[in-house]
Amino acid sequence: MHSVEETIEIAVPVSTAYNQWTQFAGFPRFMRTVRKVDQIRPTLTTWTITAGPVRREFQAEILEQEPDSHVTWRSLERRSAHRGEVTFRPTAAGGTEMTVRIHVGPRGVTGVLAGVPRLADRVVRDELRRFKEYIEGLGEETGAWRGTIHGGRVRPEEAKPHRSRVARWPVG
Known about the structure:
By secondary structure, the chain is of the alpha+beta class. It has a domain at 2-23 and 63-152: Alpha-D-Glucose-1,6-Bisphosphate, Chain A, domain 4. Helix content is 21%, strand content 38%. The strands form 2 sheets. A 7-stranded antiparallel β-sheet has the order 1-7-6-5-4-3-2, covered by helices on one side. Strands 8-9 form a two-stranded antiparallel ribbon. A hairpin with a 5-residue loop joins strand 6 and strand 7. Helix 2 (108-115) crosses helix 3. The termini are far apart.
C-alpha cells in the first residue's frame, strides 16, 4: 500500500468546510478525477472516477463520521482498493486545517496512481486545493449532513438530515 497525506488551510469556519465535504454528489464540481458520486444511504456511496484513459466505478463505505471532526471510509472493491480519512481542525484565524490521508492498494485506478512516484500525492494535493478554491469562492456550504456514524452505523437519533436552509439528504 502507498500512503498519501496532504494538509491545507481553508479560509472558512470548520462547520462550513465540513458541511460542504459531506455533499459527496457535488465533488465533480471541483474534483477533476471524480465524474459522479451517488450516496445510496448515509454509509454507502458509489463513485465513478477517471485517471487518464482509465475509468473505474466502486463503492465506498463510510466507517466513521463525526461532525466538524472527521470522515473515514474504505472502498469495497478489490480493484479500487483504498481507505482514507479527512480531518477538520479550527485554525487560530477562524479557518480550517483539513488533512486528507489515503492508503491506496496495488490494483485499479488507485494502484495506477500509487505506482507512479508522487502522482497520487500530486492528485490528492491538487484535488484538495480545488476544494479550497471552491468553498472559499462560495463562502458558504451548499448543503449539510450532520449525522454521526460509528463502526459503519448511523446513530439512530441522527439518521435524519440536519434541518437548515442548506440541508439536503439523501444526496444523489
